[in-house]
Amino acid sequence: RAAAPRGSWSSESSASSGCWEPQYRVVLLGDPGVGKTSLANAFAGVQDSAPTRLSRCLAEVAYERTLSVDGEETTLLVIDAWEPERRESWHRSHCLQVGNAYVIVYSITDHGSFESASELRIQLRSMRQAEDIPIILVGNKSDLVRCREVSVEEGRACAMMFDCKFIETSAALQHNVAELFEGVVRQLRLRREGKEA
Ligand code: GDP
Asked: Which region among 92-96, 98-102, 153-157 has the lowest average model confidence (pLDDT)?
């Protein structure tokens, strides 16, 4: 059976109850090697729980989990399918179209990946102009302090300029990973409440 819930993370998923209708799709973007798969694994807790049953095309790249945040449950389907080197532009545009929220990841040890993150933000903005979608800028590998090439201030300033949220994480140490995805849930709810009002 799946692992016991960790903190506010629930191990229950709608897939195991027979119907899977993810409430929200969260797409991970960022250069290769920045830690997207590691963050997705940390989110799903794959080390100690059975993988969620998903359709075959999603099984490799999507991680579903129900989080209890502020007393309310929300299911996130985290999609780790971004491959910037793929030539087919339909794949890139599909990734940029399907998300209800985006997590743009760079590595704090790689300034080039930070610059790519800005470019991704610009691409997203042009593809999804009319929509107010939550975007979180994530500086991953915060445990590698000696190799840091991007300061916290730089990350924060970039997020402010691009009007998105910011957090530094370490997928390796599981630091701030739960906070990241809880933040995504809160941002999604804020928009939902805005629409309902
Ligand atoms: P992706 O290509 O963006 O999906 O990146 P991966 O998740 O495959 O990670 C690339 C490499 O960075 C792997 O060797 C990971 O173990 C390592 N890595 C990922 N996140 C962290 C982190 O937070 N800290 C450290 N030290 N290494 C990490």
From this structure: 92-96
Give the separation between CA 140 and CA 162, rounded to whole angstroms.
18
Q: How far is the CA of 172 from the centre of ligand 1 (A)?
A: 7
Mean pLDDT for the chain overall: 84
- Please say if the pLDDT value at position 142 is more than 70: yes
Protein residues whose CB sits closer than 6 Å to any atom of ligand 1: 30, 32-38, 140-141, 143-144, 170-172
CA 75, CA 15: separation in Å to the nearest integer?
10
**pTM above threshold 0.90:** no
